[in-house]
Every structure is written in structure tokens, then in C-alpha cells.
Design brief:
Layout: H1 4-57, H2 62-118
Amino acid sequence: MKNPFIDMTAEATRRSVDSVEKLAAVNTAVFTKIAQFQIDTAGHFVAAGLEQAKRLQGAQSVEDLLAAGNAFAEASLNDGLARAQSAVALVAETRDAYLGLLQEAQIADVVTQVAKKAA
């Protein structure tokens, strides 16, 4: 003989485990992307700094120094804007993933409530 309470408890437990697994997958993906983004950014700025140091070593005049500084500032600004846009896209992607999980949970809750009322 089946016990409805045990069935409902088992179903709730299964859904909880599924939700936690999905949340863990989203978190793992987000943390991986953030870590890679930080590594890429750090590597880029180290390389850009070395390149700028080489340019400054080759300067023959104040004009050369100013031109190298201006070029570096412009490149840094453009790169900084691009990296900021990438960070915003990563945050938006993360938000969308979390919203998807919330919507999925809400739909499951509504289905469960309808099933309880029908029973």
C-alpha cells in the first residue's frame, strides 16, 4: 500500500536535490569563467606593461615619451572598456542562469500545488 505522504516527501527531496545540482553547475560555471577572466586580464596587463616599458626604452626624445604614453593610455582605455563590457556580459549571463532556475522552481511549485488540489 502506497503512502501519499512518503511519495510527496520523496518527490520533494528529489526536486531539492535536482535544484541543488543545477545551482552547483551554474556556480561552478560562473566561478570558472570569472577565474579565467581574471587570469586573462592579469596576463594582458602584464604583457601591456612590458610592451610599454620597451617603447619607453626606445624613446629618443620627450616627444617620443609623450607619444608612447598617449598610445598606452588610449590602448588601456579601449581595452578597459572592452573588459568592462565583458564583465557586464558575464554578470548578465549569470543573472539569466539564476532567473532560469528560479522560474523552473516556480513552475514546479505551481504544478505541485495543482496536483495537490486535483488529488
